[in-house]
Amino acid sequence: MSVIRPTVRPKNTILFKFSFGMSVLFLVMITATYMVVDLVAKEYLINKNKELIYETGLHIVADISLRISIAETLARNLAAVGETLPKDPQLFRQVIPQMLDMPENQDFIVGGGVWPEPEQFTPGVVLRSFFWGRDSLGKLQYFDQYNDVESTGYHNEDWYVPGRYSKPGECLWSKSYMDPYTLAPMVTCTVAMFQQQKFVGNATVDVSLQQLKSILREGSAKLGGYAYAVDRNNKFLSFPDEQLTKISNRDNNNLTQEYITVKQLAEKLDLFQPIADILTEINKTFIQSVADNNRLLAEDIAEQSKQISLLDAQLIVANMLLLREQKYDRNAKTISMISKQDFLLGEPVNVSVFIMPKTLWKVIVVTPQQVAINSASKVANLILILLTAIMIIAAFFGFIYCRRSLIVPMYKMVKQLQQSVPEGEHTHTALLDDRRQDEFGLLAYHFNQAKIALDRNNRDLTLQINERKQAEQQLKHLALHDPLTGLPNRLLFQDRLQQAIALAKRHGHKFAVFFMDLDNFKIINDTMGHEAGDELLRQVALRLSETGRETDTVARLGGDEFAFIINKIDSIADAVNFALRLNKLLKTPIAVNGNNINIGSSIGVTIYPDDADNCDELLRNADIAMYQAKDDGRNTTRFFTREMKAKLQQNKEILTDLAESLTQDHFELYYQPLFTIDHKTLVGAEALIRWHHPDKGMIPPDKFIAVAEQSGLINELGDWVLAQACRDIKNFVNAGILDIKVAINISPVQFKRKDFLQQMLLILAQHDVSANCIELEITEGAVMDNVDQAIDMMQALHDAGFQLAMDDFGTGYSSLSYLKRFPIQKVKIDRSFISDLENDDDNKSITTAIIQMSHSLGLDVLAEGVETKAQLQYLQGEKCDFVQGYYTGRPMPASQFIETFKRAKDTSLAERAGMVSSITT
Ligand SMILES: Nc1nc2c(ncn2[C@@H]2O[C@@H]3COP(=O)(O)O[C@H]4[C@@H](O)[C@H](n5cnc6c(=O)[nH]c(N)nc65)O[C@@H]4COP(=O)(O)O[C@H]3[C@H]2O)c(=O)[nH]1
C-alpha cells in the first residue's frame, strides 16, 4: 500500500505557531508596557518632576535663607555691639565697618549700621546713626546724611519703626526698596537694641536683592521655567523681566526704579491675576491670624511711619507674632497650582509658591507643564524602547532556543521515523534515538516502547488476519468445492460454465460440457461400504482431474455425478476424443481396499453453442445425453441430440396425458398366466398395465412407466393397478379361478414410499381382498439403494401376507448375499437370459446358476419370456419351478383371462397352452 507522506503546511508548523504566539505575546507585552509606562510611570515621573520642582524651590529658599540668616546674625551682632560698646563714635566707626566688611558676604551684604533712638547715643543729639553702605566699587562708605539736622531723619522709616515693638534678638525684614545710593533693590534686616530692657535703637543690615535674581535664575533654569520672589507685602523682590515689574521714579532729578506689587502687575496682565490672587490670599491668611488686641499695635506702627500702611503694619505684626510664637514652619510652605497659560512662557505651567517662614517672602517657581510631560515622555519612551529591545532580543533568543530545543529535535525524530520505517514494514525495533536526557528522550523512549508493543500487536494481528483469511479461503473453498474429492462443486462449476460461455462468446469458439454418472456405484457403495465408495470417488476424481487441460474444469456435482467443461474445442471430434479418453480412463480397474474395481460410466455431452447458449440448458442437455447413455446400456457416451430433447418433450406430453387418463379411466390390466414348470397347473397371473390412449391408441408400459416414475405419478398409477387387480381377483374368484396369486409390478418409487404398506393394505381392505392373493414383484433397483430399509419393508409386506418375488433377476446386482437376506419367496429370471437360451451357453450357465442358487436359498424360480418349447424343456431339465412366457400364455384382458381359465379347469394344460397361444395381445 503506498501512502503519500504528509507534509505540514507552513502555517501549521509549531515554529510558525510559536513565532505567531511570540509575536502576539510581544505585541501584548509592548502594549501593556506602553500602558503601564504611559499611565503609571508617566504619572510617577510627573510626580517625580513635581518633587524636583519642590526640591528646587526648597533649594532656592534654602539658598536665600542662608543669606538671610547671615544677614540676621550680622544684624544681631551689630545690635549687640550697639548695646554693649561704649558710646564712642570713633569706636563705632572702627568696629561696625569691620563687622560688615566680610569678603565672603560682600556681594549681598551691601550695608548696615547702628541707629540709636534720639539722644540715646549722645545726649541732646536726636540723630546719631552709624551707617555704611557700599559704593559702586563695593567698598563700604560711611553715610552720615541721616544725621543731618535738616533731613527727615531715620526714626520714622518703615525699616526702623517696627523695631520699637520687637523683642531682643528678633529680626524684622523690611519691604524691598531701591537703595538711594546704589539704586539697587534691597531689603533691610532690623534688630532692635535694648539697654536695661529699654529700646535704644536698631541695628540694620542691608541685603542686596541683586543676587537673589541670579539664585532664582540658576535654581529654576534646570526646570526649563523661571522663578521670582515677592516680599511680605507681595512686592516683587526679583523678576526675570524687570521691565514688567518695575516702575520708574524721578527722585531729586535721579531716575530710580522700584518693584511693583503683584496686584499692580495683575492689573496690567490678566494672565497673572490667578497668581496674584493666591499671593494676596496668603497675606490675607496672615493678617487674619493677627488677634484683635494686636491690631492696635499694627495701628501704632502704621501711625509712626508714613511709609507703612495699616495693611503693611498688620503683616509686620503677623510676622512678628509668628516669629515669637514660633508658629511658623521652619521649612518653606508650598502651594501649587496650574496655570493654563503663563504670560511669560505662553504655555500651561505649574506654579509653586514657597513661603519663607522668617520673612514671609514668597518664592514662586514657574515650570512649563510640557517640560514635565516631555521629560516623563522621554523617560517613558526610553523605557519603552529599552523594553522593546529587550523583548526583541528575548524573542530572538527564545526563537533560537525553541528551535534548538523543540523544533530541531522534533524534525530529527521525524527524519528518523521517515528513514527507519519502510512503508508497510514492521521492524520490531526502536525507531527513535532515545539517548537524550530531556523530555524528547523520554518521549522517544516511550514512543519506541509503544512502537515495539504496537509491532507485537501488529504481528499478532497479522497472524490473526492471515488465519482468518485462510479460514475464509477454506470456507470459500468449502463453499465452492466438494469436500470429499476437492473438486469444484456444482456452484463453482456453474460459475465456470458462465465464464466459459462469456469467453466463448467473446472469442467465438466452441466448448463441450460433459456429464458423467458412474455406473453401478450404488452397488459398490452398499456392498463395500461408504468408506470404500468414498475412496472410489476420490480415485475417480483424481483420475478425472489429471485428464483435462489446466483451463478445463472438472467438478463433482453430487453423488456419483461428475461434470467437465472442455474449453475451446475446434470440432466435435475433440469432444469425442475426450469422451474416449474418459471411457478409457475408467476402464483401468481402480484399487479400493485391496479390491480392483471396474467401474463404468455413462457420459452425456453437449456442445456450446450448437446445443444451447446458456448455463442451465447446457447442463440439462448434458444430463439428458447422460440418461440416454444410461438408457442405451450404460458405460457409454452420448452426445446430445435434438431427438433426445424431442423424446423428453414427448415424455412430458405423456406425463400430461397420463394424469388426464388416470381420471378418465383409460387404463386396463392384462393378465399373463404363470404356470408350474410342467405347464400343468396355473399358479398365478402377472398384472400388466395397458394404456388406451384416446388419440394414440394402445401404449405399452415400456413407453410410460419410466415417465410416470420420474414424475411420481407412478404412485397413483400403482394404487389404481392394485385396486383394479382387487376387482379382477374378485371376478376371478367368482369365475371359480381359485388358488392363484396375482403378481403386481411394484415400481422402485412406490416401494420407497414410507406409507407403501399402509396404502396397499388400505386398498385391499377397501376391496375386501386378502394380501395372500397378491404377489409383489420388486426389482433389484428398488431395494439396492438402502438394503436394510428395503429388507424391513419386505419383511413387513411378507408379514402382512404378501408374497414377494425378485423381478428381472440377473440384469442388476444379482448378489447372492442379498438374496440370502431378502425375505422373498421367488426369483424371476429376466427374459433376456431366456430368449436365446437354446443357443447361448452363457445364458444357459447363468440361468442354471440362478436356479441352483435360488434353490439353495430355498427360493422358487420362475423363468420369464419363455417363447419356445426348447426353452421350456431346458428349464424343466434345470428344475425351474415356474414358467411365464408367450409359449405358455400371452398377457390378456381380465375378461379373456376369466374366459380362458374358468373353462380350463376341465381342460388339460396342453390344450390350454395351444388355446392361449392363439390369443395375442
Ligand atoms: N418378448 C416377450 N415378451 C414377453 C414374453 N412373455 C412375457 N412378455 C412380456 O414381458 C413383460 C413382463 O413384465 P415385466 O418383466 O415385469 O416388465 C414389465 C413391467 O416391468 C412393466 N409393467 C407392466 N405393467 C406394470 C404395472 O402395472 N406396474 C408397473 N410398475 N410396471 C408394469 O412394464 C414391463 C413391460 O410389460 P409388458 O409390455 O406388458 O411386457 C411384459 C410381457 O408382455 C415372451 O415370451 N416374449
Write a structural description:
- There is one protein chain.
- The protein has 921 residues and is an alpha+beta fold.
- The chain has 3 domains: 51-371, PAS domain (Beta-Lactamase, 2-Layer Sandwich); 481-640, 2-Layer Sandwich (Alpha-Beta Plaits), CATH 3.30.70.270; 672-688 and 714-918, TIM Barrel, CATH 3.20.20.450.
- Strands 22-23-25-26-27-28-29-30 form an 8-stranded mixed beta barrel, surrounded by 5 helices. Strands 1, 2, 3, 4, 5, 6 and 7 form a 7-stranded antiparallel β-sheet that branches. The protein has a 5-stranded antiparallel β-sheet with strand order 9-8-14-13-12, with helices on both faces.
- Mean pLDDT is 85; it is low at 904-921.
- Ligand C2E binds next to strand 23, helix 17 and strand 27.
- Residues 672, 687-689, 700-702, 705, 721, 745, 747, 777, 807-808, 831, 864-867, 884-886, 891 line the site of ligand C2E.
- Residues 509-642 form the GGDEF domain.
- Keywords: Membrane, Transmembrane, Transmembrane helix.
- The chain crosses the membrane at residues 20-41, 379-401.
